[in-house]
Amino acid sequence: MEVGVVCIPDDEDLNRFRRLVDTTDGWTVRYNKNNIKVWVQNISEKEAASTRIRMLKTVNVMNDVSAPLAYDVLHDPEYRKEWDKHMIEGKEICMLNPNNDISYYSLKCPTPMKNRDFVTQRTWLETDREYLIFNHSVFHKDLPPKKGLIRGESILTGYLVRPKGKNSCELFYVTQSDPKGSVPKWAVNKVAQIVAPSVMKTLHKACLRYPKWKSTHNPGFKPWLYPEQAMGYLPRLNMEDLLAKQEYQSDDSLDETGMKEEDFNDSNLLAEDKVL
């Protein structure tokens, strides 16, 4: 999978994502508290000079949430409006097949960063031992950059959920996303490492509330589980609607070059993130 390339992932793509989840060699733990652990990937000085953001991964061991429940919460677009208070807008645009779609997501970023949006191809899969959801950025003519938002780029972002028992699971999150714009590299990595644990805590709370919410909000509608619902839910992708990366321009008028490291202290970021 490559940024800008729309295709159905193969077994090697799935296995690559699993390896990122499972390996600990070449990763450093940056947070380990209350069943949540955060790693950042070690990179060489040469690699650090050529990339804006390190890959990050998080695991949350949820002893009171089943794997199928966590998978539903990660998928349900209507419920996300209830728990994701950073989301400005989120919607599915079209589908490649019942396990792949193209989606749009815009979010409110922690001050002093400007708000971002993303257009991604999203893939999901349920197996007898795990649930996977991951995405990468693509380019669609009906989703040009919007004024007031910086178009970010997901190199690879996703979740993997594994059951630990009937009512417990491990929720993994892996991401390497470039926010673009002029935000300094050090700020990108600092924000990611601070916000990740808070997001995992928010997801845990959302999982606990979901059964009651879903019971009164179209409880039988889960197109991520039932292909017959998915086929009638979204239009098919028209390959002529896809664009090459070089045709895209983002809102470069949003200047972030004046950021200072004191703007990114942990307390300010967590105060900003508490609305999640």
Please describe what this structure looks like.
The protein has 276 residues and is of the alpha+beta class. It has a single domain, classed as START domain (Alpha-D-Glucose-1,6-Bisphosphate, Chain A, domain 4, 2-Layer Sandwich), CATH 3.30.530.20. Helices cover 28% and strands 30% of the residues. The chain contains 7 helices and 10 strands. The chain has helices at residues 11-22, 45-50, 67-75, 77-83, 185-214, 227-231, 266-273, and strands at 27-33, 36-41, 56-62, 87-97, 100-107, 116-126, 131-137, 150-151, 153-165, 168-178. A hairpin with a 4-residue loop joins β6 and β7 (131-137). α3 (67-75) crosses α5 (185-214) and α5 packs parallel to α7. It is globular, with a radius of gyration of 18 Å. It starts with 10 loop residues before the first helix and ends with a helix. Residues 267-276 have low confidence and may be disordered.
Pick out its properties.
10-stranded mixed β-sheet, START-like_dom_sf, 30% strand, 7 helices, alpha+beta, single chain, phosphoprotein, transport, Alpha-D-Glucose-1,6-Bisphosphate, Chain A, domain 4, lipid-binding
